[in-house]
Design a protein that fits this description.
With about 350 residues, the protein is an alpha+beta fold. The protein contains nine helices and 13 strands. The chain has helices at about 5-20, 55-60, 70-80, 85-90, 95-110, 150-165, 235-250, 305, 315-335, and strands spanning about 30-40, 45-50, 85, 115-120, 120-125, 135-140, 170-175, 195-200, 200, 205, 215-220, 265-270, 275-280. It has a six-stranded mixed β-sheet with strand order 1-2-6-7-8-11, sandwiched between helices. Helix 2 crosses helix 9 and helix 3 packs across helix 5 (about 95-110).
Length: about 350
């Protein structure tokens, strides 16, 4: 079981499972960062797992907790060790230099590079080398009820993922049925895509083991779809770093940014090892689409709630945001000190 009757609740629990138990069926050798609803203009993935070098992930923290967008990455990755005019230091971006100049100012304001003015020129210097922190990207599509029609609709998207090879592995996560042969194995999915079945129980305080004391059962192992020439493909590396930066900055607990935690009915409920949103007005876990300003049950927090300093400064909505942010930061810190 999972909270609510939509894929959103299942998706949040898959993210928490991946955060604690990735990779399925084997020992973790990399640090893990999990995010959700990320991708490219053509394709958006439900869950994204970054397998990272622990030392590199720790070094990435020098550049702050916020993501570095494509323009900032261009500046930070190529910033020189010693002072140099930014036009000499950075490779030509393929667009006007005035946009690079604006990115240099933003980077300096963020403290991710240093800048100074020498005459009419702006010189830059790096604060530290940008680390090689990303090892692999794993894309997971979440379909709790993977019936034949859902599989047909999903097959084309998964084939695109395999052919594009932006991710190193592609998986489908579905709810376990307990059958001797899981129905997902009988559906027409690309052979390169892995299948993992999960079962959740809020009363157990964790993901319920399905068999062999495993938190998730791998029904079909994926193929590695990384191209043979990936190490020399700078364009692929750039796109993957941009995706990884978005995942690093947002995580999977950022659902509060598209929902309304400032509503008096918005709550967080514990479901196993995850905290998931709950609507007190409807008495159930809501979806991100339902929890919006257009919801007929929406009621702003009373002003008196927001003016009290203790125990939740700014009201419950602010407290929820701080709690989710602290949990995300705690996971980052744990991953960088993992043995």
């Amino acid at each position: 079981m999972y909270p609510g009757d939509a894929e959103f609740g299942f998706e949040l629990l898959v993210c928490r499972w991946a955060e604690t138990s990735w990779p399925p069926g084997s020992t973790r050798e990399s640090a893990v960062v999990v995010s959700r609803q990320l991708g490219t203009k053509r394709r958006r993935w439900d869950t994204v797992v970054l397998e990272c070098d622990p030392d590199g992930l720790a070094a990435r923290r020098q550049f702050g907790e916020r993501e570095l967008d494509s323009d900032l990455l261009h500046v930070v990755r190529h910033a020189p060790a010693e002072w140099e005019w930014y036009r000499n230091a950075l490779p030509h971006p393929g667009y006007p230099w005035r946009y690079v100049r604006a990115a240099v100012h933003r980077a300096a304001d963020r403290g991710v590079v240093e800048k100074r003015r020498q005459g009419n020129r702006i010189e830059i210097r790096r604060i530290a080398p940008y680390p090689d922190w990303l090892r692999r990207i794993v894309a997971i599509e979440n379909k709790p009820d993977l019936d034949a029609s859902a599989a047909r609709a999903l097959a084309g998207q998964l084939e695109h993922d395999v052919e594009a090879a932006l991710a190193d592995e592609v998986w489908v996560a579905t709810e376990a049925t307990g059958s001797r042969i899981e129905p997902a194995l009988l559906e027409d999915l690309p052979v390169d895509v892995g299948i993992v079945t999960l079962s959740f129980d809020a009363d157990a305080g964790a993901v319920v083991p399905i068999e062999n004391d495993s938190v998730g059962t791998v029904e079909w192992y994926p193929s590695e779809v990384t191209p043979p020439d990936a190490s020399g493909d700078e364009e692929r590396r750039r796109r993957r770093l941009e995706l990884a930066e978005r995942a690093y900055g947002r995580g999977w607990r950022s659902y509060h940014e598209t929902m309304r935690p400032d509503c008096r009915h918005f709550e967080l409920r514990r479901f196993g090892r995850a905290l998931v949103p709950h609507c007190a007005a409807n008495g159930r876990s809501q979806t991100a689409a339902e929890c919006a300003g257009s919801c007929p049950e929406f009621e702003p927090e009373p002003p008196a709630w927001r003016s009290r300093g203790w125990p939740i400064e700014g009201g419950p909505g602010k407290g929820i945001k701080r709690l989710l942010r602290r949990r995300r930061e705690r996971v980052r810190e744990r991953e960088t000190v993992r043995d």
